[in-house]
Amino acid sequence: MRKTLSLFIGIVLILVTLGILMLASASSAKYDDAASYFVVRQLIWLALSFGLACVAARFDYRFYQKLAIPLAAISVLLLILVRIPGIGTTINGSYRWLRIGPLTIQPSEIAKLAIIILFAWWLARNQRRIDELKRGILVPFGILACFVLPLVVEPDFGTTMLVSSVAVFMMFIGGATIAPLMVTGLSGLLGVTILIFQNPERMSRILAFLDPQKYEQDKAWQLINSLRAFAAGGLWGVDFGNSMQKYHYLPEAHTDFIFPIIGEELGLIAALVVLMMYVMLFILGLKIALNARDDFGRFLALGITLMITMQALINFAVVTGCVPTKGLALPFISYGGSSLVISGVMVGILVNIAHARMHAPRSASRNPFKDRARKV
Fold first, then answer.
1. Among residues 302, 282, 292, 284, which one has the least CA distance to residue 172?
2. CA 26/CA 106 separation, integer angstroms
3. What whole-number distance in Å separates Cα of residue 33 and Cα of residue 10?
4. Is the pLDDT of residue 374 over 80?
5. Are 373 and 82 in contact (CB under 8 A)?
6. Helix (H, G, I), strand (E, B) or coil at 292
7. Which of 88, 219, 280, 323 might form a disulfide with 317, Cβ 3.0–4.6 angstroms?
8. Buried b vs exposed e over 94-121: b needs ≥16 C-beta within 10 Å?
9. pTM for the whole thing?
10. How far is C-alpha 301 from the chain's CA centre?
């Protein structure tokens, strides 16, 4: 477990370092002081993230069970506040931010952690009743709806799909019956799909995804230039700092679309190495979850692992044109204070779960999957 934890932390540090370097390059084309502006701010957030990660690493993860409901309530309240005029801040037509003095926070990032803790607490307490329609399906999906509805209203369909997918996977691994899980999940997906079709802005993104060449000068602008960045980079890249796509061809080159800049400047090999590092994070996170001391620790580690790696997977899919464009940052690499801080806290919690396993015997049950043969 010690080697697993050391490797996990090492990969996170490599990704964070790469993120600072690529941020300096990707933001340098915005305006004269952009590089130093974004890098300095990111370093400040990184220092805060590191401090909170250290606190979380020394804080007994089992205490979060007591915070599950209060943290969830606060998180939902913050998601609602972003839609209130004068409190929420609008950027690019979406209400996703709260301004507190000089700081801007994104409540959806807090919601990601709150959902993981709440579902880990719920599943640990109700595993024996997870096959019941009410306890195993209706109540968890009702809890999820409290988070999803404010996210849809923002609108933030990317985060909606991410947190819903993580919650469903946690329920499945916890032992929820597949059939009702799929029916309920597909019903929610149908509802989101209807909302997308009724939203001209979202619908135009779908059309641009289906025929990017036709919408090259409009909604498919970022996607087309993202693909051009990968093509220009080839195997070994055009060298660090020499990207052309960052010169206003990719407006979000320092945030959601920073991965194409990595592909352009460092090449396909480096991009694949970054991809493999996230795969390693997934494997190492699962190992930490499997070896956790108790059910709550297992589900908490599992949820954190899924949240980080699935967000990275969606980002990779977006920038390569595999799914329609969504505003999801690449964990540890993209510019963004809220994302970096919450990711740091998640890493700290994983570290604490691993440390607890190393310093005490684990519980008798090693399998995070519910024993379906066990009588309720």
1. 302
2. 22
3. 31
4. no
5. no
6. coil
7. 323
8. bbbbbeeeeeebbbbbbbbbbbbbbbbb
9. 0.91
10. 14
